Amino acid sequence: MSQRLLVIGGDAGGMAAASVARRRSPDLEIVALEQGRYTSYSACGIPYVLGGDVFSLDQLVARTPQQFRDRFRIDVRTGHRAMAIDLDKRSVEVHNLAQDRTYKLGFDLLHIATGAKPRRPPIPGIDGSQVYGVQTLEDAAPLLEEAKSGRCRNVVVVGGGYIGLELAEAFIKREAMVTVIERGAEVMGRLDPDMGALVSAGMRKHGITVHTAEAVNAIEPGTVTTTQRTVPADIVVLGLGVEPNSALAAEAGIATGVQGAIAVDRRQRTSVDGVWAAGDCCQSRFIVTGEPVYVALGTVANKQGRIAGINIAGGYATFPGVVGTAITKLCALEVGRTGVTEKEAKRAGFEYVVAKIESTTRAGYYPGAGTITVKLLVERVSGRVLGGQVIGPEGTAKRIDVLATAITAGMTADDVVYLDLSYAPPFSPVWDPVQEAARRASGLLEARG
Amino acid sequence: MSQRLLVIGGDAGGMAAASVARRRSPDLEIVALEQGRYTSYSACGIPYVLGGDVFSLDQLVARTPQQFRDRFRIDVRTGHRAMAIDLDKRSVEVHNLAQDRTYKLGFDLLHIATGAKPRRPPIPGIDGSQVYGVQTLEDAAPLLEEAKSGRCRNVVVVGGGYIGLELAEAFIKREAMVTVIERGAEVMGRLDPDMGALVSAGMRKHGITVHTAEAVNAIEPGTVTTTQRTVPADIVVLGLGVEPNSALAAEAGIATGVQGAIAVDRRQRTSVDGVWAAGDCCQSRFIVTGEPVYVALGTVANKQGRIAGINIAGGYATFPGVVGTAITKLCALEVGRTGVTEKEAKRAGFEYVVAKIESTTRAGYYPGAGTITVKLLVERVSGRVLGGQVIGPEGTAKRIDVLATAITAGMTADDVVYLDLSYAPPFSPVWDPVQEAARRASGLLEARG
Q1: Type and span of the H or E element at A386
Q2: Longest CA span, chain B
Q3: Which alpha helices (H) appear in A8-115, and where do they start and end?
Q4: Which residues does residue B372 pair with via DSSP β-bridges, in sequence order?
């Protein structure tokens, strides 16, 4: 008799594993439970639908449940929520939401990909009906109605991270008055504050009000009150990041780690034999420090899902970890980061030099060349690149990939200086800006020793 | 008494060395000879001036002779040509072109950066006044006059490499009828023919006539005759690549290597003590094969110049070599390559799998997403990435840098699959196209072993 793989969660971390396992194990019976209506969609695309760049939420779906059934023979059950895992009996209690019926489903192999949920700190009023967290397509649908309606004149975004700022831009495009409230010294807490300040400036230039070093005290219908002021707010959008949906696993006795995320080994195995996890519900390893880390990103979910799928099917693959790469487009600015920030470097005990340079995205004389700022952190003595941040116009963001690759390879600043990177006037100065920064770092290292 | 460094050649390979040496050796006397009028200019920018994207040739000058004199205390002598090197007497015979006067100049240290010149095969009529090679700003000036004049209705470009095609596009922008004659099976001989064919198609779509597998038999005033036809030609532009200007060094007894380029060690030292070389006149090492190679590119010239400068000043630095990275923008297409092509891989004895995929430059649902083709060559057994080629619309070219970095680091296809590359819908699908190609290669390797 064939074995049954039960997958909990129908987005990237779950369905990547399911499809890879299917390809390698034609005989496996695969059942996938998804509490919502959608499978494999791009949550990262939601701000662009809200802002009107992308026409509909449906366009964000990469593969429908029916496609998984037809092409991969995966028994996808949408509207079915996993309520509890019984590891002794190897079964999951499932709630069929439409029929309000509960049943038990046995498994031989279990893959957990329950994702994440927006953080909702205990602020008075945070559970009001005008307060939106945006994580799933189901979350996004009512917010999209609001955005399209033109009813919401005043939008307050709580939290100035990537998602918060992307949502702020979306509502500016819908001609709302948008205010971002960020508790930290600067927006984009995953950048150094000096780089975050460039982002704040860019957002303000586009008419977005940005208040930093300001906490939200209370949310009431029509207003948000901070430590500094009361702001009108027809709707409030939460951009405070996410936390892992790991309660189901934890309650079953599966070990958790950083920020409560499910602990996994390099093969995406949990602490329990025959139980796997991938994506936003579980942790990763941070290559720069070697420490476990929680990163909720679609790219990581897809990779971890693939690793899990290969191993579930009896193959062998290990996930090397992440270097903390992230990019975004905010109004006219492109922003990227990888590796450690200054704060993270200090916490890990690294001594480093900082090279910060301005260069141009194209040859200076070529039409459309704009100023790009590159900041590099390079370890003393070893010369190893520890982190990088880039901010600038069109042509900036994807340059972070060279640094992500160099950091993964353990390259030094000098290694980066002499990389054979591409050059042509429409794309780059003769020294690519990341190499210009590496050159500066190399000089600082030599001076300092 | 201070030592004298004599630099022959005022472009990147020469002046990068001179400025780096100056910074590290305040007491060095530095004299730089340049036969032309300009120093440190971007020859790669010439097609964009010819096409009218960039206003004037002067904009291509990064640093003028006067700036080198003022900021770096370098005695730059433009219009002075080095005629002969006497290694025994440690002196160079110099011709002052304006005064038509010859003098001898002694040196303690000599740095040769004599650059390259366009290839002119022995085709009847190739030395006609209507035939232009484009290598220096001096070459470009009369061609720019022609382009602006509107006189040249019919332009024939001989050679379908990067420069040839960039020049073809420039003249299409000037509303000439442009024909490219390429002897090889496809344009862009540094790509595989299947990828070159995509470029030909793109050029034709923009109204450029492209004839491949066709050699030029004769050039006459008003026409070019090939093995297949006679084409009207008011002017003829040579895009046949360049060869090293190494005669001066060779005649002095300095060793040369690949294609007659000056042989250098990793510190850019020539075969003669105290004599250095950098840039288009000398050879490099090809990291993928370990063999010496001739690559004439501004990026390489700048890096080699920097290495030479550090060593000349008594420091220590070595040039790791190149991986053959190159990019260009041709009409609506961006094209990039790095590492080895199939032909080069076979010649070096590599067995490999080929992964060729189509993906999109942005998330498929994001406005402006276009089709990108990525081709990867991956070594059997080791899984090492040997080469990559990319063709597609805006957002394509600079992706080659990840592959250049990965190849330099000796990464395998699996290493590339799991790189933490950046993702956001305006910039990439969730699997970056280069990772999509690596994933395909990984599957092929597993199937083939």
Answers
A1: strand A385-392
A2: 71
A3: 12-24, 46-50, 65-72
A4: B359
Q: pTM for the full model?
A: 0.97
Q: Are B325 and A298 within 8 A, CB to CB?
A: no
Measured between beta carbons, the chain A residues lying within 8 angstroms of B325 are 420-422
Rounded to an integer, what distance in angstroms lies between the CA atom of residue B20 and that of residue B10? 14
Residue A374: how many CA atoms within 13 Å on its side-chain side? 31
Please answer whether residues A166 and B427 qualify as being in contact, where contact means their C-beta atoms are separated by less than 8 angstroms: no
Bridge partners (DSSP) listed for residue B81: B95
Query: pLDDT for B107-120, tens place per residue?
Result: 999 999 999 999 99
The secondary structure of B349-401 as a DSSP string is: T--EEEEEEEEESS-TTSTT--EEEEEEEEETTT-BEEEEEEEESTT-GGGHH
Backbone phi and psi for residue A163, each to the nearest 5 degrees, phi listed first: -65, -45
Pairing of strands A116-118, A242-244: antiparallel
pLDDT digits (tens, 9 = 90+) for B335-348: 999 999 999 999 99
Q: CB under 8 Å to A217, separation ≥6 — which residues?
A: A123, A124, A225, A226, A227
Rounded distance between C-alpha atoms, residue B43 and residue A362, angstroms? 15
Q: Are A365 and B425 inside 8 Å of each other by CB?
A: no
**To the nearest 5 percent, what fractions of chain B are helix, strand and coil?**
30, 30, 40
Question: Nearest Cα to A134, choosing from A177, A171, A81, A100?
Answer: A171
Neighbours of B67 (CB within 10 A): 15
Tokens 């990039």 sit at which residue?
A: B336
**In this predicted structure, what is the pLDDT of residue B449?**
65
Taking only residues 409 to 428 of chain B, the set having a beta carbon closer than 8 angstroms to any beta carbon of chain A reads: 409, 411, 414-415, 417-428
Separation CA B132–CA B143 (nearest Å) = 7
Closest CA to A403 of B406, B306, B415: B406
Residue with tokens 């709580």: A158
Q: How far is A304 from chain B (nearest CA, A)?
A: 9
Tokens 């709630």 sit on residue: A95
Alpha carbons B159 and B215: distance in angstroms, whole number: 9
Stated as kind and residue range, the H or E segment containing B441 is: helix B433-448
